[in-house]
Write a structure and sequence with these properties.
Strand content: under 5%
Shape: globular
Largest sheet: none
Oligomer: single chain
Number of helices: 4
Structural class: mainly alpha
Mean pLDDT: 89
Helix content: over 70%
Number of strands: 0
Length: 144
């Protein structure tokens, strides 16, 4: 059996690297979600916040922080840009994709009558795939 060519090996290793990053991205997302919910639950059930919306907002900040740090140091292992530059880019992407999520749900569910859960799931899939790609190739890219 012949050995794979250099180009074949490079292609296989690149695919393996993307799969590894995508796996770390999913793990990071789960950890960020746990941080979000953990802060929310602590505020509501332990401290006694009466406003779920306020507790959710504080929890979201914890989740966003975990997501940023996890993407920078665990998923993409990026030091190509300063922490401040990456944080600014991450914040911009997070806000833009949040707006896109709202627009997709509005279009699919409110405008075209698609099932609300399916509309939410579709928007979430678009958001996750877009976020991974934009974070990989713009926010946390390795070279300047």
């Amino acid at each position: 059996m012949p050995l794979p060519s250099y180009n074949e090996m490079h292609r296989l290793l690149s695919q393996s690297h993307i799969v590894s990053q995508a796996s770390r991205y999913v793990i990071n997302g789960l950890l960020a979600t746990l941080a979000h919910y953990g802060a929310f639950a602590t505020l509501v059930f332990v401290i006694g916040f009466t406003s779920a919306a306020l507790a959710n907002s504080v929890g979201a900040l914890f989740g966003i922080a975990v997501s940023f740090l996890g993407n920078r140091y665990f998923v993409f292992r990026s030091t190509g840009y300063s922490w401040h530059q990456q944080c600014a880019r991450f914040s911009f992407v997070y806000l833009a994709l949040g707006a896109l999520h709202v627009i997709i749900v509005w279009l699919l569910a409110d405008r075209y009558g698609l099932d609300k859960t399916l509309a939410f799931a579709t928007a979430t899939a678009v958001q996750a795939i877009s976020s991974f790609s934009i974070n990989k190739f713009w926010v946390f890219k390795h070279e300047k």
